């Protein structure tokens, strides 16, 4: 059935990738940059006879984007975006949407996403009041994090014990300030909420194409 070109995300034209960077698939292909004017796409070749649906594929997709976001601006595309060939990457993706992508990349300059997740300690909060406690705690923490973030988004709880689940777009040089706020709340709510801080990562919650692929740019 031949091969297609898997697209991970969009980057500035001058981005270089490590020669040992590899992508999705059973035999991961070399990561390349397809360039057009001032932007580029991170891609790798993939066989078309094998669906990209494993946990390893998803982890490689996210891992490449998150490692990129720690260094340079990147616009993540949804998992599973495949085009016919390298020419199609330019003709169908980069060229028609060049100005939109370039503007979005400039907005991401020096910024990355961080996720703050807190979970209630078992039996620390009665089940019948978890929803009310979650709303109050989310508002309190969000108010404290707003000064160190550019944008924020409240994620839906993934499990009942979830206390807070926030995505934040943050200037990378303010990561220390973000960590200080989270550490302060971890101390303040010790014994009631356990915290995790993830990032820097690609701005999945703040880029349309991360959720629905390239459809928004058509």
Automatic annotation (TrEMBL):
Keyword vocabulary terms for this entry: Gas vesicle
GO biological process: gas vesicle organization
InterPro entries with a match to the protein in the record: GvpL/GvpF
Keyword Nucleotide-binding: no
Cell location: Gas vesicle
Family that this chain belongs to: Belongs to the gas vesicle GvpF/GvpL family.
Name of the protein in its database record: GvpL/GvpF family gas vesicle protein
Source organism (scientific name): Nonomuraea turkmeniaca
Highest classification ranks of the organism: Bacteria, Bacillati, Actinomycetota, Actinomycetes, Streptosporangiales
């Amino acid at each position: 059935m031949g091969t297609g070109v898997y697209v991970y995300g969009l980057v500035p034209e001058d981005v270089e990738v490590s020669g040992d960077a590899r992508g999705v698939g059973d035999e991961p292909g070399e990561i390349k940059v397809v360039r057009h004017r001032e932007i580029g796409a991170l891609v790798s070749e993939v066989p078309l006879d094998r669906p990209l649906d494993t946990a390893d594929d998803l982890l490689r997709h996210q891992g490449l984007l998150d490692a990129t976001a720690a260094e340079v601006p990147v616009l993540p595309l949804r998992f599973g975006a495949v085009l016919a060939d390298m020419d199609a990457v330019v003709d169908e993706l980069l060229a028609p949407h060049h100005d939109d992508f370039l503007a979005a990349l400039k907005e991401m300059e020096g910024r990355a996403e961080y996720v703050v997740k807190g979970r209630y300690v078992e039996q620390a909060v009665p089940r019948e009041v978890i929803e009310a406690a979650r709303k109050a705690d989310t508002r309190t923490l969000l108010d404290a994090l707003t000064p160190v973030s550019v944008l924020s988004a409240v994620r839906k709880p993934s499990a009942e014990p979830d206390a807070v689940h926030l995505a934040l777009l943050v200037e990378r040089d303010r990561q220390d300030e973000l960590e200080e706020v989270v550490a302060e709340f971890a101390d303040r709510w010790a014994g009631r909420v356990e915290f995790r801080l993830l990032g820097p990562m690609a701005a999945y919650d703040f880029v349309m194409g991360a959720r629905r692929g390239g459809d928004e740019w058509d």
